[in-house]
């Protein structure tokens, strides 16, 4: 016996053995009946229906709402297998309402996708969509995703023909199989296996798809999942009929045998009618068994419809009776309360006016005193909060300034001073030539100049950070400022044979602090000249757009890699760009960013890493 079938039968046997011990009028007994109905659902429909009715009747008698909701879902599933969709829908709706009252998320998810499946079978996917989406949303938040897996499988079934949802249905099918495999749910693995076969057929793999279905049908029969074997043979019959294969008769007979074994008689109408017509052409005797099956199906359908109607009417009448009792009790209670209040009010009315006047006067005095005290306390607290916030703000500002300054001194002064020391030590060599001495002297002078320039930048920045600094912008002609900036660098520009293009309108005015802005302009041009290859072009542009001033400085050359660009203005990683490429601007760009932001602007950098670099600020 296969392990799955053995385990399934063992669970059913254990539940049956515990039924007498639980008592026939207990909530545990109702839960056991509903669980047996659910276990029998894919194996033996008549047994599932019988346990569902028993669980429903007992839960109604005990007023056990969880048991009623579970029984409603089982009855709805039974009537779905019987193609009695209207009655199934009524039970699903009743189950959903009770789950919502209980706040049972797993039950709500199951009821929602069951109603969505009902509309799908009615070919109303427009109505099925909101229910399936709600079920997907609730199911994704369940603590135990095993309750979500059937929802995912049915989501695939509803929307597998919707070309706009190919990605979502593929994901849902894969997720359902992953969950089923994790919980060793053989029934769900078989169910989703049918959809995988459908996916193979969609790709044109007819023979492998049919082989998969035959394997799944055989496995379902061995595991005792009779309905799944009926489903598999129905799908094989559909493929064989569509592609005009010779095995249609075999599949329909197999489907009919399985359905008769499990009591899924309503599913036999079409195959039984087809087989009856087929064998009627051969002989009446050969067709007689199928005629008997058709008659039995009709009788069984009437019996199931009558029993379902009785169950629903019994539940409806009991619910109406309970509502009437609750309403009558509420009315009686309301009358008693009203009479008691009227009597008490008459006795207390005079006392209320006498005492009320005294209390009102006392409350006015107390309220005035409390209000004055509260206002004083609130004012003191507000002053203290403002003082504390201001001190915290100052401490944070000073701490940030200290961190920036230490980082700058640690990175930007160490390298040039080290070079100067190393170069100075070369003078101690006795074999040094005059030409080498002049070259070393020139190098020391250049590095000392750079260090001095760096020191001046730090001093300007420190001055801007000191308490009491106030930003007072004034109007200046942008072109005049840039003409002033380029003069100190004119010799370097000529030495490197660079072409400097100023594309700035003569009447373009900028409102800023001159020293801060010229510091930014000077350092951006200095970097552009420093990193431009000989004979290349530097472009400086300025323009107004949407009441903001934009200035960009672009130079040709190797550019800045995408890895370094995020750290160009970051003092916490000062020198990273310099260490990796030998071309970093260090503190100057950090101070430039600080000055631009103090003037209410933003500075950015972009580069392709190969041919150009552009620094742009906006004020």
From TrEMBL:
It catalyses: ATP + protein L-histidine = ADP + protein N-phospho-L-histidine. The chain crosses the membrane at residues 348-371. It is an enzyme of class 2 (transferase). The keyword Transmembrane helix applies. Residues 317-344 form a coiled coil. Residues 408-619 form the Histidine kinase domain. Keywords: Coiled coil, Membrane, Phosphoprotein, Transmembrane, Transmembrane helix. GO terms for molecular function: phosphorelay sensor kinase activity. Gene3D superfamilies: 1.10.287.130, Histidine kinase-like ATPase, C-terminal domain, Tetratricopeptide repeat domain. It holds the Pfam family HATPase_c. This is histidine kinase.
């Amino acid at each position: 016996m296969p392990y799955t079938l053995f385990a399934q039968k063992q669970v059913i046997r254990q539940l049956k053995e515990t039924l007498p011990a639980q008592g026939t009028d207990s909530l545990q007994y109702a839960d056991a009946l509903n669980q047996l109905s659910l276990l029998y659902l894919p194996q033996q429909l008549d047994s599932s229906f019988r346990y569902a009715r028993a669980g429903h009747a007992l839960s109604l008698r005990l007023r056990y709402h969880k048991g009623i909701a579970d029984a409603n879902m089982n009855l709805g599933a039974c009537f779905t297998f019987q193609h009695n969709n209207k009655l199934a829908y009524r039970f699903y709706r009743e189950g959903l309402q009770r789950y919502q009252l209980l706040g049972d998320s797993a039950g709500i998810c199951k009821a929602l996708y069951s109603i969505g499946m009902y509309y799908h079978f009615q070919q109303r996917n427009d109505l099925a969509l909101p229910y399936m989406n709600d079920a997907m949303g609730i199911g994704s938040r369940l603590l135990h995703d095993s309750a979500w897996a059937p929802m995912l499988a049915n989501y695939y079934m509803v929307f597998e023909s919707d070309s706009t949802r190919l990605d979502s249905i593929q994901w849902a099918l894969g997720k359902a199989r992953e969950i089923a495999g994790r919980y060793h749910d053989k029934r769900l693995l078989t169910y989703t296996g049918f959809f995988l076969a459908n996916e193979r057929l969609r790709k044109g793999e007819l023979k492998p798809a049919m082989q998969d279905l035959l394997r799944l049908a055989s496995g379902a029969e061995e595991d005792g999942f009779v309905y799944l074997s009926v489903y598999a043979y129905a799908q094989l019959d559909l493929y064989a009929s569509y592609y005009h294969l010779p095995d249609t008769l075999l599949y329909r007979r197999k489907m009919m045998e399985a359905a008769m074994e499990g009591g899924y008689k309503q599913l036999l109408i079409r195959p039984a009618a087809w087989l009856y017509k087929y064998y009627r052409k051969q002989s009446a005797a050969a067709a007689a068994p199928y005629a008997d099956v058709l008659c039995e199906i009709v009788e069984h359908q009437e019996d199931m419809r009558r029993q379902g109607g009785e169950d629903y009417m019994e539940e409806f009448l009991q619910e109406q009776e309970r509502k009437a009792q609750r309403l009558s009790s509420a009315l009686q209670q309301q009358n008693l309360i009203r009479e008691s209040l009227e009597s008490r009010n008459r006795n207390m009315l005079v006392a209320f006016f006498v005492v009320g006047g005294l209390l009102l006067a006392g409350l006015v005095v107390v309220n005035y005193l409390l209000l004055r005290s509260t206002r004083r306390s609130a004012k003191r607290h507000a002053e203290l909060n403002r003082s504390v916030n201001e001190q915290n703000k100052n401490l944070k500002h000073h701490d940030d300034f200290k961190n920036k300054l230490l980082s700058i001194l640690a990175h930007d002064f160490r390298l040039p001073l080290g070079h100067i020391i190393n170069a100075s030590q070369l003078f101690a060599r006795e074999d040094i030539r005059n030409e080498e001495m002049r070259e070393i002297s020139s190098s020391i002078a250049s590095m000392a100049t750079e260090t001095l320039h760096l020191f001046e930048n730090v001093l300007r920045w420190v001055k801007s950070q000191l308490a009491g600094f106030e930003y007072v912008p004034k109007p200046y002609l942008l072109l005049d400022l840039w003409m002033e900036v380029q003069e100190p660098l004119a010799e370097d520009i000529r030495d490197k044979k660079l072409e400097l293009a100023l594309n700035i309108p003569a009447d373009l005015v900028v409102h800023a602090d001159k020293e801060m802005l010229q510091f930014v302009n000077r350092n951006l041009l200095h970097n552009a000249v420093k990193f431009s290859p000989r004979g290349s072009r530097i472009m400086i542009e300025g323009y107004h757009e949407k009441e903001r001033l934009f200035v960009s400085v672009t130079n040709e050359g190797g550019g800045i890699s995408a890895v370094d660009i995020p750290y160009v203005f970051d003092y916490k990683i000062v020198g990273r760009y310099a260490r990796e490429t030998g071309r970093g601007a260090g503190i100057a760009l950090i101070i430039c960013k600080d000055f631009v932001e103090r003037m209410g602007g933003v500075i950015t950098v972009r580069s392709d890493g190969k041919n150009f670099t552009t620094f742009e600020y906006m004020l």
